[in-house]
């Protein structure tokens, strides 16, 4: 394999160690640790796995955590009630509501109700606005994780062409802003492709890219013939595909045809073990920042 691995698993471990050292300091000064609340509605198995992982990460760094599991029949009003309870609780520093929510709940109504300074995922419109204007605020966790990974591997972005596939509120859109705004990483020329980008145009754009970031949710979308020699490839896709040989019955793949693309790229993120663990590390980091802010 030619490409170097952008090891999100290891980098996230480094970040968790740094956070743990800060939490140990707080404890030694007699202060309470930061506290993250995750609210999970319903029984989506992938969501359960994600929330369990987030709770495990909290335990590892010494955070307090609460896993609030609500039935799928929870109404929007009831869920908003829980969010408001945690908003007002001075012993809670970070709140996240695991997506996707059941169909009868409008996710934007929940996102905008979380008080912005406890918005661990960084999805609140105020935080997205602050990010867009390059003001200090909480960054969306997955885009922040990608920026952190690129930063720690010292991958240059200034003046580079970054092509993003996907324009979702939580990944594609915010990463496009972070990559084009001032700062390092940043200062890139950015192209966003989405569901209405004709496949031929997506290929043309990717072939021009120094950095390709893919957040679509389609296994095999990005193939080696779409990638320039020595490009950096960041795969945000997490797709479950059937694998009868596995005990779980499935395995995880990204949106990139990993084996073939890794023969052309200079750097590539694996799935799993790339962007996923970085997202969780940034959740912890956002919660720690909220804590520090409220403790002066
Ligand atoms: P995530 O939460 O991982 O960002 P979403 O499912 O919310 O993913 O969004 C998927 C995104 O992928 C959408 O913005 C959609 O426009 C984009 N998309 C869908 N098909 C294609 C495609 N063929 N090429 C590029 N982007 C696509």
Features:
single chain; 296 residues; alpha/beta; Rossmann fold; 6-stranded parallel β-sheet; 3-stranded parallel β-sheet; 10 helices; globular; binds adenosine-5'-diphosphate
What does this structure look like?
The chain is an alpha/beta fold and 296 residues long. It has two domains: 31-115, Rossmann fold (3-Layer(aba) Sandwich); 141-275, NAD(P)-binding Rossmann-like Domain (Rossmann fold), CATH 3.40.50.720. 40% of the residues lie in helices and 16% in strands. It contains ten helices and eleven strands. The strands form three sheets. A six-stranded parallel beta sheet has the order 1-11-8-7-5-6, sandwiched between helices. Strand 5, helix 7 (172-180) and strand 6 (189-193) form a beta-alpha-beta unit. Helix 1 packs parallel to helix 10, helix 6 packs across helix 7 and helix 6 crosses helix 10. The longest helix is centred in the N-terminal third of the chain and has 21 residues, at 8-28. Adenosine-5'-diphosphate is lined by residues 165-168, 170-172, 193-195, 197, 202, 215-217, 236.
Spell out the blueprint of helices and strands:
Layout: E1 4-5, H1 8-28, E2 35-41, H2 45-61, E3 64-70, H3 76-88, E4 94-97, H4 107-111, H5 125-132, H6 141-152, E5 161-165, H7 172-180, E6 189-193, H8 199-208, E7 211-214, E8 232-235, E9 239-242, E10 250-253, H9 258-261, E11 267-268, H10 275-294
Parallel strand pairs: 1-11, 2-3, 2-4, 5-6, 5-7, 7-8, 8-11
Antiparallel strand pairs: 9-10
Bound molecules: adenosine-5'-diphosphate (ADP).
Adenosine-5'-diphosphate is lined by residues 165-168, 170-172, 193-195, 197, 202, 215-217, 236.
């Amino acid at each position: 394999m030619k490409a170097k691995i952008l090891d999100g698993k290891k980098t996230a471990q480094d970040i968790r160690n740094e956070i743990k050292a800060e939490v140990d300091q707080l404890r030694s000064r007699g202060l309470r640790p930061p506290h993250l609340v995750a609210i999970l509605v319903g029984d989506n198995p992938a969501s359960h796995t994600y929330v369990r992982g987030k709770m495990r990460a909290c335990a590892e760094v010494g955070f307090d955590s609460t896993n609030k599991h609500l039935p799928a029949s929870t109404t929007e009003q009831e869920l908003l009630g829980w969010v408001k309870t945690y908003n007002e609780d001075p012993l809670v520093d970070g709140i996240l509501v695991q997506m996707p929510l059941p169909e009868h709940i409008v996710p934007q109504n929940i996102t905008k109700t979380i008080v912005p300074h406890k918005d661990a995922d960084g999805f609140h419109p105020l935080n997205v606005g602050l990010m867009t204007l390059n003001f200090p605020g909480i960054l969306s966790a997955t885009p922040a994780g990608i920026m952190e990974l690129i930063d720690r591997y010292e991958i240059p972005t200034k003046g580079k062409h970054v092509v993003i596939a996907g324009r979702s509120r939580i990944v594609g859109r915010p990463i496009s802003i972070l990559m084009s705004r001032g700062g390092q990483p940043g200062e890139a020329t950015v192209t966003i492709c989405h569901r209405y980008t004709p496949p031929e145009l997506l290929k043309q754009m990717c072939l021009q890219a120094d950095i390709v970031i893919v957040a679509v949710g389609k296994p095999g979308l990005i193939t080696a013939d779409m990638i320039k020699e020595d490009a950096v490839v960041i795969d945000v896709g997490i797709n479950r595909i059937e694998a009868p040989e596995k005990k779980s019955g499935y395995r995880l793949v990204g949106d990139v045809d990993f084996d073939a693309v890794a023969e052309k790229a200079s750097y590539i993120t694996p799935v799993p073990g790339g962007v996923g663990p970085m997202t969780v590390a940034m959740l912890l980091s956002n919660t720690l920042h909220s804590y520090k802010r409220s403790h002066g």
